[in-house]
Amino acid sequence: MALDLVTEGRLVDIVAEGFDAGIRLAESVPRDMVAVAFGGTSRFISVAAPAYLKKHGVPRAPLDLLQHSCIRYRMRNGRIYHWEFERRGNAVDVDVRGQLTLDEDRLMIDAAVEGVGIAYVPERAASEAIASRKLSVVLDDWCPRFPGLCLYYPGHRQVPAGLRAFVDVLKEVVPRR
C-alpha cells in the first residue's frame, strides 16, 4: 500500500481528482459519500491571555469583540474568517477587528499568549495553553460543540483493500482516545 497525503485549503472533489478518500468536517461531507466519524466532537473557542483581559476587560457577548483587538484568521483562499458563535439557537457572525492577521492556529495561540489580543481557535489546539493558565476562554457559552472530522470515500465504487484496512483500524482505535 502507498500513501499520498495532500493538504488543501479548499474542498476537493476526491473522485474527480483521483483520491480514494478525504477528511473533512462532518457537516461538509457530500451526501453521496460514506462517512466515518473519528476524534469526537469539536469546537472553536475564543481565548486571551489573563493580562490582556485584565487590561481590556472580558467580552460578555460576541458583539463586544468589536471593542477588542482580535487576532484575525486568513483562510487559504485569502478571505478573512468571520468568527461564528451560537447560543440557544441565536447565531452571530462577527467580522472582528485587529492589527494582526495570521493563517495558522499555533501562531494565533502564541500571539494570544503574548497578549496581542483575543484569538478564535480549535479547542484542542489551545488546550495546553488553557491548562497551564496562559490563556483563558472567553464567551464559553457562545462556543458550542459540533460534529468533528470524518474520513469519507465514495460508496458507489470498490473500496481499495488498504483503505478498507485503514477504516477498520480507525473505527477500532480512535474512539478509545
How would you summarize what this structure contains?
With 177 residues, the chain is α+β, with helices and mostly antiparallel strands.
What is this structure's SSE topology?
Blueprint: E1 22-25, E2 33-38, E3 44-48, H1 50-56, E4 70-73, E5 83-87, E6 90-94, E7 100-102, H2 105-113, E8 118-122, H3 123-131, E9 136-138, E10 149-154, H4 161-173
Parallel strand pairs: 4-7, 4-8
Antiparallel strand pairs: 1-10, 2-10, 3-8, 3-9, 5-6
CATH class of the largest domain: Alpha Beta
Radius of gyration: 19 Å
CATH topology of the largest domain: D-Maltodextrin-Binding Protein, domain 2
Calculate the terminal CA-CA distance, rounded to whole Å: 26 Å
Name the average pLDDT: 91
- SSE topology string: EEEHEEEEHEHEEH
What share of residues is helical? 10-25%
The rough form would be described as elongated
Strand content: 25-35%
